[in-house]
Design a protein that fits this description.
It is built from four helices and no strands. By secondary structure, the chain is mostly helical. The chain has one domain. It is elongated and about 45 Å long.
Length: 67
């Protein structure tokens, strides 16, 4: 995920890095979003939707463990 690391460090100043990051993220299978969000959390990146997705997934896992 080097493409996204560069884009995050540039904070929008490098459009090529932003585009390469988006291409990388879009190339991931849609069921890979939890992985992408986990990497983003670890690296301190803010990706729209990830905070909500992590909360939803945590809730699901907690409910499964409770059963």
């Amino acid at each position: 995920y080097q493409e996204c690391d560069k884009a995050a460090k540039e904070k929008g100043a490098d459009q090529t890095a932003d585009i390469n990051c988006v291409k990388y993220l879009l190339s991931a299978r849609k069921d890979c979003w939890p992985c992408i969000c986990q990497i983003a959390k670890k690296e301190g990146w803010k990706i729209k939707g990830c905070t909500l997705m992590v909360k939803i997934l945590k809730s699901i896992v907690d409910n499964l463990r409770a059963d």
